């Protein structure tokens, strides 16, 4: 089975809330809440993929030094194996906007588990809450 590398980030605001994005209708796993990010292209680093995705999806600018490694997911989906490093980021430039029709929500740590997430993400939440 193919292993797909996806870079994801927990953006954390000044109040310690985390940004979740709801997958739009029509996509696989529509309606579930996930961390911003996306597939790492061939020849790209995970950090470069995040800088690109955060610009495209949210309209914000970030740098490699913005990203601190937090934890990772290694999860077998039916059709691929997901390897997903999760970074934390508290610094960016610009205002977060939903540029791709996604719904965005700033979520306090205590409410994270109330948001239905892809299977791969569920084990990441305790690690994230410990870190916040
Ligand atoms: N960005 C992100 N992707 C996640 C998370 N959890 C998780 O299982 N994924 C999966 O990782 C892949 C991310 O790929 P992507 O965002 O570039 O692609 P996509 O499915 O939106 O579009 P595409 O596959 O049609 O290009 C998807 O299969 C997505 O379901 C998460 O927290 N954040």
UniProtKB/TrEMBL annotation:
Domain Nudix hydrolase intervals: 2-130
Catalytic reaction list: 8-oxo-GTP + H2O = 8-oxo-GMP + diphosphate + H(+); 8-oxo-dGTP + H2O = 8-oxo-dGMP + diphosphate + H(+)
Record-linked NCBIfam families: mutt
Metal-binding keyword on record: yes
Signal peptide span: none
Keywords, in A-Z order: DNA damage, DNA repair, DNA replication, Hydrolase, Magnesium, Metal-binding, Mutator protein
Gene it is expressed from: mutT
Domain of life: Bacteria
Gene3D superfamilies: Nucleoside Triphosphate Pyrophosphohydrolase
Cofactor: Mg(2+)
E.C. designation(s): 3.6.1.55
The family this protein is said to belong to: Belongs to the Nudix hydrolase family.
Entries under CDD domains matching the protein: NUDIX_MutT_NudA_like
Name of the molecule in the record: 8-oxo-dGTP diphosphatase
């Amino acid at each position: 089975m193919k292993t797909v590398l996806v870079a994801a980030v927990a953006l954390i605001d000044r109040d310690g809330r985390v940004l979740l994005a709801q997958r739009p209708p029509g996509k696989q796993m529509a309606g579930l809440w996930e961390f911003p990010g996306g597939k790492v292209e061939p020849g790209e680093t995970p950090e470069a993929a995040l800088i690109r995705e955060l610009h495209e999806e949210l309209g914000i600018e970030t740098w490699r030094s913005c990203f601190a490694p937090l934890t990772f997911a290694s999860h077998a989906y039916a059709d691929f194996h997901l390897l997903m490093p999760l970074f934390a980021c508290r610094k960016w430039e610009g205002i977060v906007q939903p540029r791709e029709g996604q719904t965005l929500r700033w979520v306090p740590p205590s409410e994270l588990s109330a948001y239905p997430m892809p299977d791969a993400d569920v084990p990441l939440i305790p690690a994230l809450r410990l870190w916040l």
